[in-house]
Amino acid sequence: MVTRKNPIFDTATTLGKIFGFLGVSAICGVLVAGLLVPAAAVSGSAASGSIEFFDTLPAELQVDPPSQSTRILAADGSLIANLYEENRTKVALDQISPFMKEAIIAVEDSRFYDHGGVDTTGILRAMVSTARGNKQGASTITQQYVNNVLNANLAAEGNTDDIKLNGVNKGVGDKLREMKLAIALEKKFSKEQILEGYLNIVFFNRDAYGIEAASKFFFSNTAKDLTLPQAALLAGLVNSPSAFDPITNPENAKERRDLVLGLMLNQGKITQVDHDAAVATPVEPKITQSRQGCAYASTAPYFCDYVLHLLLNNPAYGATPKEREQMVFRGGLTITTTLDVNAQNVAQAESDAAAGVNPDNWGASIVSVQPTTGKILNMAQNTSFLPTEGKFNQTQNFNVDKLDKDGNDLNGLGGFQPGSTMKPFTFAQWVNEGKSMNTNLNAATRKYPQNFPWKNTCPEPTVGWYDARIPGSFDLQNSDDGYYRNMTVLYGLQNSINTATFASAAQVDLCGIQKIVDAVGIHGGLPVGDDPNPPVKMTTLANLIGSTQTAPLTMASAFATFANDGKYCEPIAITSVTDQTGAQLPAQATSCRDAVKPEVARGVAYALQKVLDEGSGSLIKPRISTKTNFPVAAKTGTNDTNGSTWVVGFTTGVATAAWFGDPLGDQLRPGRNLTINGKRYEAIDGYMIAGPMFSKYMAQVAPAYGTNAFTAPPTNMVSGTPARTTPSTQATAPATAPATQPSTDPAPGNSDKKN
């Protein structure tokens, strides 16, 4: 038996629909009256009040460029990384498939070319459908574009709580405002401009804003090359990106796609044959997952992160950190950097190979600069920026300072003890004072007590002593007993003899060494007190042999001065920044200064070639030097615990710092009794691991930048008549000497002659 419905309820339902219809009609009448009829021509207080309200609404829409992805590029224009809050790449209308344009109009606004921003026919149709219980929207593409622009402007300002969404938190006043702005927009822009703006701003997926990003994400395609079924699917997705997501809801996505195809057929946009072929096409997305940030960089993630920090620290990109983030992550910038992709690839391969299988997480890094420009060519280390099983995971950059000069974070580790790579600066002061590098020294002197008569014209006092007669102190050490003897200054440097460095320092002005070190940009990589980049005080004796942590980039740039005839160039990473309109924004420019005399730079370069030919660097295998390939100058370095080992050197075209050691915690692990790449090391030294890393890298990269012969130093600097100098005085420690050394006294620093 069929159950009959109660006629009372049927009548009530019908009356409810009628009253609902009338109510909606009244609202619609007010809106239409406000939109289409001048206020003076409308009678009735309700209509008049609505028109007055409508007239108070803004009629201008600030259409700022939508948030776009920022691109960081290598020097050759290849992509390093994308940065964004909304993954969007703007494209012109002629770079969008005609299928996409027709599909979006068919499903979202079939009368797009007929109305003036608000479709009254659509409003009435939606009103009737809603009265019948089938809720239907009536927003035109122009209105949707207005809503997207308003929301994008709020997001850019950080006011995400004020964003209005259809059917969620949008009231009558919001709709009135949207309509009025849509009408004004149609008067200002062409239909093509509005359609282009809409397709570039609309949301498709949390990883895809705008049609180009959506095409790439869902189909690994460009907007220009979208096929008919692909375009129909994306057009259908706009209505509800979650409900019609082809990844999570493929059946819903196909149903919606086919609806769009049916509309296109009914509106005469496609043929029956095209329709049937598209409907028969399975929904098969080909996802290209968007990768945002330097962690997903195609190459050089640590260099990318360094560049990002430079931008976020630069007031030119915004007065506050929040403003700078908005500019960088939403501004659609194109950032061209100094990175040489080939040099980076070689550096990465060599640093990975040098560290090899490394369960104890020993670190390796290589960084290079171009001496004449300061351009950073590569920045590599043997770690994974993203957590990866079986890898040495590390987000901090081994090659740079912890903070920049203004105290802003650089995400750097802050450097390592440079050991004997600091010795060339004492040598530089020696020849700077007009002394011959062929002068004999008494390198047997091992005691430098508290009252030793150092020459120091700086206001900072000389700090530290080496004297085993004082409890807690010790005599200066070399690695081998056979080097406590007379030798030339040049021989002492090329063989990295600690006592020779001190013997030469005892005959020059320590303040002169300080001025050279400052001039070539050397500073500590860790903050001290309020100073983010404290000076390396050469009046503290331990710094003559490298006790203050210094970043590899700092050392590479300092040594580049000797390759550049005494001119120091600040390291730079960013050569050009343009916004999405193509306007130039502040970047970094080459900034060089006279740091040491040209003849001094030539003298140091001459001596450091000898290091590789005859001295501590001659053990590097494979070896590149004046005898084997092209001119290279370098200095090895090892700190007192063997936990930090270096080779820093240069050709005329490239200066490089290669480092291997302990990057963890307080960096106090001794580099002894290690097994690296299956080889056992009793104690690692600069020439052992950092050395081959340096030489293999330079052999592959340096020829592209020039490997000319170095200019010879003045003859009298090299071959002046050897003069036997007075041995350094070994003064007796005073009876009032403290029982222990003060905390400012140096550790033994570097005691290895081959470092």
TrEMBL record:
Give the region (Disordered) as residue ranges.
716-755
Q: Name one GO biological process term.
A: cell wall organization
Q: Which residues form a coiled coil?
A: none
Q: What is this protein called?
A: Glycosyl transferase
Alphabetically, the GO molecular function entries are: penicillin binding; peptidoglycan glycosyltransferase activity; serine-type D-Ala-D-Ala carboxypeptidase activity
- Cellular component GO terms held in the UniProt record: outer membrane-bounded periplasmic space
Quickly give the catalysed reaction. Answer: [GlcNAc-(1->4)-Mur2Ac(oyl-L-Ala-gamma-D-Glu-L-Lys-D-Ala-D-Ala)](n)-di-trans,octa-cis-undecaprenyl diphosphate + beta-D-GlcNAc-(1->4)-Mur2Ac(oyl-L-Ala-gamma-D-Glu-L-Lys-D-Ala-D-Ala)-di-trans,octa-cis-undecaprenyl diphosphate = [GlcNAc-(1->4)-Mur2Ac(oyl-L-Ala-gamma-D-Glu-L-Lys-D-Ala-D-Ala)](n+1)-di-trans,octa-cis-undecaprenyl diphosphate + di-trans,octa-cis-undecaprenyl diphosphate + H(+); Preferential cleavage: (Ac)2-L-Lys-D-Ala-|-D-Ala. Also transpeptidation of peptidyl-alanyl moieties that are N-acyl substituents of D-alanine
Entry keyword set: Carboxypeptidase, Cell shape, Cell wall biogenesis/degradation, Glycosyltransferase, Hydrolase, Membrane, Multifunctional enzyme, Peptidoglycan synthesis, Protease, Transferase, Transmembrane, Transmembrane helix
* Protein's organism: Pseudarthrobacter sulfonivorans
Segments crossing the lipid bilayer: 21-41
